[in-house]
């Protein structure tokens, strides 16, 4: 049988840009069990002296997470951060309207930031621009980053933290274009508020970077016009614009689901074009980059009842705990390929979320923590992708999908570090094997390791046994390919697969 053939060309001078380590970020929101019985569970056998689960922390390090966004998400748009600091014994539970959950208020700003510090994770904080505004946002920056001698910095010191946290990256609200958001605003109102809040926050600490809310998805009716209007107010103040996107298999359409990376690519290109158009109109030399601070596979249409339909619940209810398959993991790998191929415009990205809520890590209260299938491609990419993202030149047959039209059958990303370490990530979206000729002109390459995720059709069930069964069936170490010629290496990709290769290189 003659296999479909793809040619992939690597050259050290074909470059996208440097990879920012913040590309491998995640997200912890006060939603379901992300915080309580997720990262935090006093009394658990692995809990540290602060009540945080060490087994989850160990898996987070293995996952390779570099930055974590907090405290939301929809949650932040009704959050009074002052209520979550100070002695825990004096804090009051309250009803969170975003997820209709009674928030116990045991974890707040200090607890999160100190957990991140202990784990070597960079924090990414969000301010409430839904029910609050300029004053509260500036006060939170002062609380986190201020020196002694001012009101909010002295409150932090009184709460037991002498040194400033030095939080650098700040989100100006969350999904403010969404009617589901508490305090939802139109683009003009939000753009003006974000600009004023950002101005005040930078007056407190000029060193911080700001992320303004972009569209909640490319499917929003206001997509494009939202970016243009918001940036027309905030372009000179902000540094990044946010992007959010979730993907799922609908009605058994595997081909379209496997091509989700093409939808993500189009979204990125359109947001970049919108931001650049505002910059051109302003005759600005500044480039706005994107923070893709929510992305993942989420069965939102087929499994989630919607925020408004949730009953009021207590005690860390199980909300949006999707169970993932090998197919989902292949798609996650392909989405990582897309993000790497836009490293020049996307310095920050967050897999949403870290634990239990559409997450690569799952836990049982009082019990085990385990890896979902989606854990493996993320951890592998975070470990291998370093240095410069190469501009991979790809000649591949197309495949046709119902949702996205013709899309590339094979996608690929590659990275090259200064010490010659090379990584190659390749997805076969088709139902048949594909032969790929890797032409490495200008590079003498030897592949030294390989890892592969295969799609599956195993029914999703809850618990570590399912995750272990999928991993056993779909995730494996593979033999790296040998060179077929001085400047060519040929690999065969199984159907519906994501493969990562590690190697060494030197200039030929």
From TrEMBL:
Catalytic activity: Hydrolysis of terminal non-reducing alpha-L-arabinofuranoside residues in alpha-L-arabinosides
Stretches that traverse the bilayer: none
Signal peptide: none
Domain of life: Bacteria
Alpha-L-arabinofuranosidase C-terminal domain residues: 293-497
Keyword annotations of the record: Carbohydrate metabolism, Glycosidase, Hydrolase
The protein's Enzyme Commission number: 3.2.1.55
Pfam family, one: ASD1_dom
Assembly and binders: Homohexamer; trimer of dimers.
Family recorded in the similarity comment: Belongs to the glycosyl hydrolase 51 family.
PANTHER family assigned to the protein according to its UniProt record, in alphabetical order: ALPHA-L-ARABINOFURANOSIDASE C, ALPHA-L-ARABINOFURANOSIDASE C-RELATED
Name of the featured protein: non-reducing end alpha-L-arabinofuranosidase
Organism for this UniProt entry: Flavimobilis rhizosphaerae
Upper taxonomic lineage: Bacteria, Bacillati, Actinomycetota, Actinomycetes, Micrococcales
